[in-house]
Amino acid sequence: MYTLIILAGFLLAMRGARPAPLQKPGQGLLRIWRESADLLLTVDLALMLLAALLLFKEVRPFAQEHSLLGAGLIVYLTVRYQRKTDVFLLSAIVIVFWIYSKQYDPIHGLAMAGIVSVGIGIFQTCFLGLRYRLLFSRVPISMKGWPILSLLAGSISIALWGLGRLIF
Known about the structure:
Elements: H1 2-15, H2 25-55, H3 60-65, H4 67-82, H5 86-101, H6 106-135, H7 146-167
Helix pairs in contact: 1-5, 1-6, 1-7, 2-4, 2-5, 2-6, 4-5, 5-6, 6-7
């Protein structure tokens, strides 16, 4: 679960939307948590529609046979309707497939989707804060690119992993 949170959070932080306004981090925080809520609602919609299809006797064999295709189609249509980026689509599909493959009951699946979405929001918030701090520090310009961002992401992932071990 931690790997999924870190990878999706890093992808969404770097390529998920327009670059975050580092001069006004409040706007970036609002956008990060709105995207996390959109991700949660998209994943929950796909999981609940799949669970609803499995309740009906007539369509249960078809829904079980084509469940991954149905989940992918639901997520794809929802994301295209919202006009989100391809990274958002990829993250939502991976999260839905991961939760559905663990065969959780619907309520536990919704809770897992909530945990992943909040984890991604926390990761992106920490990442935005560290990028903001890096912008106004005396780090040489040649070090303000990918090497430092990768080190920041690694540091955040270690901190979240340690925090998660204490909580769970």
